Amino acid sequence: METTDGLMGPLLLSRGIVDRSAALRNDEDWLRRVWAEERTRVLLVHEGRTLVRSRGMEASLTLMSPAEAPQGPRYLLGVDAEGVPYFAVKTPLPDEITEGPAPEDGPYDAPMGLRQAGSLLDDRDAGLFVYAVALEAWHAGHEHCPRCGSRTDVAASGHVRVCPADGSQHFPRVDPAVIMLVRDEDDRALLARGPEWPEGRMSVLAGFVEPGEALEQAVVREVFEEVGVAAADARYMGSQPWPFPRSLMVGFFARALSTELRPDAEEIAEARWWTRDELGAAVRSGELGLPSQLSIARRLIETWYGARIDGD
Fold this sequence. Notes:
It is built from 6 helices and 15 strands. The chain has helices at 28-35, 114-117, 123-141, 215-227, 276-285, 296-305, and strands at 41-45, 49-55, 58-61, 74-79, 85-90, 108-113, 153-155, 160-162, 169-170, 175-183, 189-193, 205-208, 231-242, 247-256, 270-274.
């Protein structure tokens, strides 16, 4: 399979550089020691948002020392190359900080989600934010044991939940999904719009992997189910976490064996084939909107297009 070297531009949510330090998650002595150190950095996370310090198009996470952090469930995010530990604390964000326009003299701190801040953060901060949001989302949906219903306890610095009744251990869940740009023999790209999307905005096809199914099989099945096109030669191009709430998007190119479009009305409102000239002109005119630069869908489209697409 090909690597992400084939993609045009970075996968903005796949840029983490802090070592996850799994061996330290159960080291209670080390955890106590670093939590007492001033240099340890903490980010707050609540319902998928954290505090971000921004000025114009520049942004960074608002990090603090453990002494400054509020009380709340604590997740170890790892240790960087300089030995600085990073934690996330799940807690409501400070009431006195509200969203709004930036003061002219900036910078300012404000609650932001990944969709707002993900493309503005550097590699370290983007990776920490994605990690914290993914852990928070998993804990929110897995507070009880799926075997007996007992409330579970958090262990391993936020990376395990343990049932006190039956002793079972439960680990963070990731739901793999395939996302694919399908091309026909004339090198046209297939884009579609779901019923919940506004008219004029389209993307590539995507769908969750089913039990007992390989990724390549999921590509072929989803394309046929959604638009009635037979596909083959699924070619891996890269992957990106998408913690909304816990997906892993695995990107592919695929070759169409047929071109007649028969959209599934429950999943697809419209679908069509695009040449590069047609797509470029439609985006420039405002007729067509594309997925955000944060998404792997945009990377697949721009890789096929052969250049960054402006005007969206």
